[in-house]
Write a structure and sequence with these properties.
With 262 residues, this protein is mainly alpha-helical. It is built from twelve helices and two strands. It has a two-stranded antiparallel sheet. Strand 1 and strand 2 form a beta hairpin. The N and C termini lie far apart (62 Å). Belongs to the cytochrome P450 family. One of its GO terms (cellular component) is cytoplasm. It holds the Pfam family p450.
């Protein structure tokens, strides 16, 4: 009954010539865009390394299983040491052999940083730049750091102090098996913050700032992980943040607060 009423309602609407023309134009634009995407997709597949075709939009993601690294490794038997695969809309080249990885990473064109990968972390200066711009900014930053005393004086004292603290924390373990990652990350994080602000944060009076820095380090590592779905489909990050999925809203707040602190 409801369907019939809806059908009757739309049957009474008369579209003018302008509306019809607009709809036709939109339809043509969508068709052309899809055609361009298809041609680009097929061209890349033809010219790039061998690999599975996958599906539109999602690529080969549905077929990777719970252990993607093992699935990609197994493809070596069919496609060789270098394979190409679409992970979502991202065209990805997988290197399945150490010698190939070493050779590729020795080439300057393989060292570019993905700007989309770090977009969620806010402004990172020259850290996400590439090419000549990166070389010039890196040169300037290193020279400025040397002028400020990099590697000597107060900077060296800050690093040595944090290193001593880390050693004391390790001694407390007394040789027992333990996951050292949290302690190591905490020490590295404290060293970097000390160099940035020129002093160590007080564990008693500035505990909230220390916690903020640790939370930021955790969120930064999680957000830029290559296996993170939002790294493959960047648009998902904002959607997850709005819908409060998987803690992305909290991550965005942490990143915002850290940038304000800096």
């Amino acid at each position: 009954m409801e369907f019939e009423e809806i059908k009757k309602y739309f049957s009474t609407i008369e579209f003018g010539s302008a509306t019809n023309g607009l709809l036709i134009t939109i339809g043509c634009l969508v068709f052309v865009k899809l055609l361009q995407k298809t041609v680009k997709w097929l061209t890349i597949l033809r010219k790039g390394p061998p690999g599975p075709v996958g599906l539109p939009i999602v690529g080969y993601l549905p077929f990777l299983g719970k252990e993607p690294h093992k699935t990609l490794r197994k493809m070596k038997e069919k496609y060789g040491d270098v394979i190409s695969v679409y992970l979502g809309p991202k065209y990805t080249v997988v290197l399945n052999e150490y010698t190939v990885v070493k050779e590729v990473l020795g080439h300057p064109y393989a060292l570019d940083r993905s700007q989309e990968l770090f977009a969620s972390l806010g402004s990172l200066g020259f850290g996400t730049e590439n090419g000549e711009k990166w070389h010039e900014q890196r040169k300037f930053v290193l020279q400025a750091a040397r002028d400020l005393g990099l590697g000597k004086g107060p900077w060296e004292e800050l690093i040595m102090e944090e290193a001593s603290t880390f050693i004391e924390e390790v001694k407390k373990i007394k040789g027992k098996p333990v996951n050292i990652t949290p302690t190591l990350v905490s020490s590295l994080n404290a060293s970097i913050i000390s160099l940035l602000i020129g002093r160590r944060l007080n564990k008693d009076e500035e505990a909230d700032k220390i916690e903020l820095c640790m939370d930021y380090a955790h969120e930064a590592l999680k957000n830029v992980a290559p296996s993170n779905p939002t790294s493959l489909v960047p648009g998902l990050r904002k959607l997850f943040e709005i819908l409060k999925i998987a803690g992305f809203d909290r991550a965005a707040k942490t990143i915002q607060n850290f940038n304000l602190f800096m």
